Inverse folding.
């Protein structure tokens, strides 16, 4: 698990370099809220979990996203329209409370009309959205996200965005 934590830290550092100007247009990019960490169980080495860290680009860069320097090995992730179920929680997002909150969201979904809509074909099991700086101690806001499949007719509107 420690090597996965190092990987996430390394990826976060590369994202930090990117927003500080390590991109082909040398643009400094305002860090948006939230930082999203998506977990894919069994996709890592020896069937461990793989993690993808993303942040949304500000509106200013949506039409023409800056390209990261090649050595950063970052890929843009243009999101297509999708719906998510969300559970909000406070404190620091740590493995113990993330798993607990993801379980509560799954239980809540299983008892709702959305139960059959959980995206079982999604490559991501769940994502964690963190809205605060790591230096903020009190009043922290986090969310667990799970993709659900619903049509536009059932309230899922299209809103394409680009993230790194």
């Amino acid at each position: 698990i420690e090597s996965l934590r190092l990987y996430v830290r390394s990826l976060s550092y590369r994202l930090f370099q990117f927003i500080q100007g390590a991109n082909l247009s040398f643009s400094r990019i305002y860090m948006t809220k939230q930082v999203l960490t998506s977990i894919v169980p069994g996709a890592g080495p020896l069937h461990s979990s793989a993690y993808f860290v993303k942040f949304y680009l500000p509106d200013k860069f949506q039409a023409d996203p800056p390209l990261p320097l090649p050595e950063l090995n970052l890929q843009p992730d243009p999101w297509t329209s999708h719906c998510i179920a969300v559970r909000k929680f406070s404190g620091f997002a740590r493995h113990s409370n993330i798993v607990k909150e993801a379980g509560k969201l799954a239980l809540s979904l299983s008892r709702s009309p959305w139960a059959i809509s959980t995206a079982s074909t999604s490559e991501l099991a769940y994502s964690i959205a963190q809205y605060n700086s790591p230096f903020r101690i009190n009043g922290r806001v986090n969310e667990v996200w799970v993709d659900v499949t619903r049509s536009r007719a059932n309230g899922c509107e299209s809103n394409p965005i680009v993230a790194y």
